[in-house]
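User: quick one
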Amino acid sequence: MTEIVNNVQHTWHVPYHWSYGSMTEEFFERMKNEKTLYGTKCTVCGKVMVPPGGCPIHLGPMEDKLIPVKDEGVLDCVTIVNLPYPGQPATPPYAYGYIILDGANTFFMHMIGGVEHEDIRVGMKVKAVWNENRNGDFYDIKYFQPIDT
Amino acid sequence: MARKLDWDITVPYKWTTGPVIGKFLGGLKEHTILGGKCPACKKVFVPPQDLCPDCYVDLTEDDFVELKNEGEIISFTQVNQNFFGEKPSDEYLNSRISPADVSEHPLLWPPEPPYAIVMVKIDGADTAMVHLVKGNEMDKLKVGARAKAKFKGETIGHILDIEQFEIIS
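Assistant: Done. Structure below.
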């Protein structure tokens, strides 16, 4: 009797190059060199997008310079990741959150650390903890840590 | 200045084959090519499929016929360029697909060019299957040529249990 082979297992591997464009390139360079975050400002509604990008409502007209924002803000929502899966930025358990940075109108997504998970609250003030060795990417920030207000 | 990010998407996966493709792969493990035969219109599909596209009748693991390991080249595409560069090392892949392991999720990688992706219509089948012709066989490759499946010594129940098709005329 011929065996039924129930499954086939492999790995997908897709290399790619992402060309940043001038705004995002400067955004990462300034993260690396100045430990500061910048956004772009929509010329129609005046909202500030961090990381830099076109305003999704007004289809992208923006001031041609980066607007500085603070590396601290308000935690808008949070999730605790307990299960391991491929491609994770950290070993579980860790916390991920949406942060509205002071001066920005969009969510900035990053890890929440330096705090017990049961003490994390939506609405708490968090501030970026920067890495000493920075490569010009999002992981130049280690995580966002709650600060006293 | 860093103008671009070089990165990759690396994802382990598991494809559940079902009874029909599962039996076809089981046949390859035993060095045989099995065709799925529609119980209504008697068409033979290689590789088999769960559903006959003409009569919408389900095929089951009982609707199989054993075919010869030979067929005819219907068409082919010769590949001369290496699109993918160097194969990433298992060590690198393991660092990217953790907690899965590359020994259980091996990376498929194309052979060294030139090789050809061929459509082979197995004798007794009504459809053609996709496979490989490579190496010295490339010189003899043409549409209409007769080809014979060359099986690997060690088989696991995988489409690449057939190493390639060899041109026999």
